[in-house]
Amino acid sequence: MKQIFFALLVIMCSFSTAQAQAQNNADYNKSLADSLGSDERGMKMYQLILLKTGPAAIADKDSVKQIFAGHMQNIGKLVKDGYLVVAGPFGKNDKQYRGLFILNARNKEEAEKLLLTDPAIKTGLLVYDLLDWYGSAALPMYLLYSDKISKTKF
Asked: What family does the Swiss-Prot or TrEMBL record give for this protein (predicted)?
């Protein structure tokens, strides 16, 4: 019985030591974590938007072209203002998904206000599904490098 107790004690101490080691990160930078809104896991809540083909049917191709030019300009503004963290189109698919946004918004209400600044959404060429998404608080850091690797600007 003493051997079983001792073995359990050793296992519990080993688990506690491993857990303590996992919690101590020598590279942790509190000021950076705080500036990014990070929790103790290095994560935070974002708003994930799946853009889909909307119900609007606009026959005039020039109008559609202008609306999507406005869509791209709005993307740039949202990035500049610190709200849009990730954006990009999907390849062809049978679900009518067109692209995604990850917004650095406080909640769904703020995200919806931001989405309604998009002319493609306002006109109904695009509609969206909006979900809470828990991801790395460091995600916006890649934006610091995106201009340095892109030969063309939108």
From this structure: Belongs to the YciI family.
What is the three-class DSSP state of 131? strand
Q: Which domain holds residue 103?
A: 44-149
| Tokens describing residue 148 | 């340095």
pTM across the whole model: 0.80
Structural domain includes residue 118:
yes
Distance CA 110, CA 24 (A): 35
- Farthest CA pair distance, the chain: 84
CA separation (Å) from 7 to 17, 19, 21, 131? 15, 18, 21, 46
CATH of the domain at 62: 3.30.70.1060
Triad 74, 56, 106: Cα angle to 5°: 40
Residue 18 in domain: no
* pLDDT tens column, 87-134: 999 999 999 999 999 999 999 999 999 999 999 999 999 999 999 999
Structure tokens that stand for 97 in this block: 């998904």
Is residue 20, in this structure, part of any structural domain at all?
no
